[in-house]
Amino acid sequence: MKQLTVLCSSDLSETVARTLARAGVEGWLHVPEASAVRPGAAAEHGRYPRWPAEMFVVPAEDAQARAVVEALREHTDNCEAEPCLRILVVPMET
To answer: What would the pLDDT profile of 21-61 be if each residue is shown by its tens digit?
Structure first.
């Protein structure tokens, strides 16, 4: 099992949901209007830059996780807001 955490711009939200459904994922948590932070790019005033994001937290079998990552790979750098898509994949014990 894997846990996928997908952060995306709002213009990719429906694409992510369709991709999860097509991969056969049983369910996911969707958090619209989240705020992503980029600590490695702190501005001169010391605050971390933020970007509006939507977040999906997804438990998935290994094959489903691979299918989701591959399907969403084509959308990297193809949206109106930057950064537009980030996917974190971590092992999950059941």
So the answer is: 999 999 999 999 887 776 565 566 666 667 788 999 999 99
Of 3.30.70.141, 3.30.70.2750, 3.40.50.720, 3.30.70.120, the CATH number of 2-37+51-91 is: 3.30.70.120
pTM of the model: 0.82
Q: Specify the length of the chain in residues.
A: 94
CA 35 to chain centre: 12
Give the torsion sign (CA, 8, 14, 20, 22).
Answer: negative
- Give the integer Cα–Cα distance in Å for 94 and 83: 32
